[in-house]
TrEMBL record:
Region (Disordered), start-end ranges: 60-105
Organism: Piliocolobus tephrosceles
Family per record: Belongs to the small heat shock protein (HSP20) family.
Organism superkingdom: Eukaryota
Gene Ontology terms for molecular function: unfolded protein binding
Descriptive protein name: SHSP domain-containing protein
Length: 105
């Protein structure tokens, strides 16, 4: 299993985006300088932070920007940090299902 998140940072080029980890947090930043458009001047800034699951190695976090403009940030989740897998028994159809009711007062 992998920790994975996708983000569409729209107005930011690859060289305007950074992904870094510090203190168990992934921080995505996007910033470009003031630019002129048809309405005047505009600058944009994006900051997004995610807390890593316990046990995820921050050096294993990777990111890439797709040709469509989707930024994917991912990291493997160690088996030990996932906790025990839940076990849910499924009753056999031939066995009647009973419900326990509290005794009447």
């Amino acid at each position: 299993p992998r920790l994975e998140d996708r983000l569409r940072p729209g107005h930011f080029a690859t060289d305007e985006l950074t992904v870094k980890t510090k203190g168990g947090v992934v921080e995505i930043t996007g910033k470009h300088k003031e630019q002129q458009d048809k309405h005047g001047y505009i600058s944009r800034c994006l900051i997004r932070k995610y807390t890593l699951h316990q046990g995820v190695d921050p050096t294993k976090v990777s990111s890439f920007l797709s040709p469509e403009g989707t930024l994917t940030v991912e990291a493997p989740i160690p088996k030990t940090s996932r906790g025990p897998e839940p076990h849910h028994p499924v009753p056999h159809p031939s066995q009647p299902q009973t419900a326990s009711l509290p005794p009447e007062p």
